[in-house]
Amino acid sequence: MKTKLILTTALTLMTMSSFAQTNDERIPAKGFAVYEEKGNFRPYEFTRHAVGDNDIQIEILYAGICHSDLHHVFADWGAEEYPMVPGHEIAGRVVAVGKNVTRFKVGDYAGIGCMVGSCRHCDACEQDMEQYCEEGAIMTYHGIDRYNGNEHTQGGYSDTYVVAEDFAIKIPANAEIEKVAPLLCAGITSYSPIMQAGVKRGDKVGVAGFGGLGHMGVQYAVALGAEVTVFDITDEKREDALRMGAVRYVNVNNPEELKGLDRTFDFILSTIPAKYEPVMYMKMLKLDGQFGIVGLPAFRNMPSLSVADLVFQGSRKVFGSQIGGIKETQEMLDYSVEHGIYPEVEIIKAEGAEIDKAYRNVQDGKVKFRYVIDMKTMK
Ligand code: NDP
Ligand code: ZN
What we know:
Layout: H1 2-18, E1 27-34, E2 41-48, E3 55-65, H2 67-73, E4 90-97, E5 109-112, E6 115-117, H3 123-126, E7 138-139, E8 144-145, E9 151-152, E10 160-164, E11 169-170, H4 186-196, E12 204-208, H5 212-223, E13 227-232, H6 238-243, E14 248-251, H7 255-258, E15 265-270, H8 278-282, E16 285-293, H9 307-312, E17 317-320, H10 326-339, E18 345-349, H11 352-363, E19 370-374
Helix pairs in contact: 4-5, 4-10
Bound molecules: NADPH dihydro-nicotinamide-adenine-dinucleotide phosphate and zinc ion (ZN).
């Protein structure tokens, strides 16, 4: 009897201590920031808002390096604010929960992708597409969090994050945790347009740009039974594409390899982060084929598609896609873990010089296929 009482008391204490104190005390955080648009990561200490009743606090274990992080750091998409801690591919462990939290408990794995808040009541939010929130989705970094005192959000190259549980993704306990982070952006951004296009068994699918997003797109399309062709600009990843299940690899810089591909594909996904000719891919679509665009090059280098291209390649559909909503992100993550679909990652130490080197390699096309920072190694 006595033992039982002690056990119950201990359990109650454990449960109580897993609830965060809901006071206004901000939470200290540290990570790596750039202080100007040239890059160069250096240590940075800052604070995050307190754990509210509906929030969870995550100890960040791994953070992926997305090409979008490079676009932000180098101000490719317009002026940015510095210091900036990038990182919107976050996998970690829950260390505190607010008192209304129901989906997470301390010790669970949890992830964060590109956004951490939205209005929750506009048409887009009601259709589970919070990324298109009419009042603006709050981005994981370089965002202004209007629900938390207008704080400037800082990203995942850091030790901890506080997020509303509704914007956190549950990571199954059996997931290969060191590979999960990139699924939260590269995974969902390629999965969502493939689902929107209704890719099915036997479809002919092209994936243009075979990097972080592209190699996820190839894996999802192959898993759905499509016949996949990869387009990239060198020969270096030919073997990798075939190993991942593609039937063909096209080096677009070799005109011979492009011959005979007009009117071939049901769907082409472009993840290209640089200037290119979209009409070249449109011509490769069958009638009623679809061209899904997710790659977002620097504004100064933006590819364009003319009205004439659309008319002369008529009956093909072109659409853009931005990440995916929270519900779809959870669906993608569960699907990926269940089917063993993960990014190929190179894990690096949480050191400024290591992150700088990784950025140079992404720029020079030397990454296979995603750098992931082991945040536990931060000193
Ligand atoms: P990566 O750098 O990992 O991959 C890009 C790949 O495209 C590389 O293999 C690169 O080759 C290849 N490439 C470059 N130029 C061409 C070209 N002209 N034709 C074919 N392939 C080319 O980038 P990510 O996958 O991380 O990101 C890709 C893009 O998607 C970025 O612009 C990013 O900002 C955007 N993005 C968009 C999101 C959205 O919501 N829509 C979300 C996340 C990212 P090489 O390596 O040899 O240079
Ligand atoms: Zn990203």
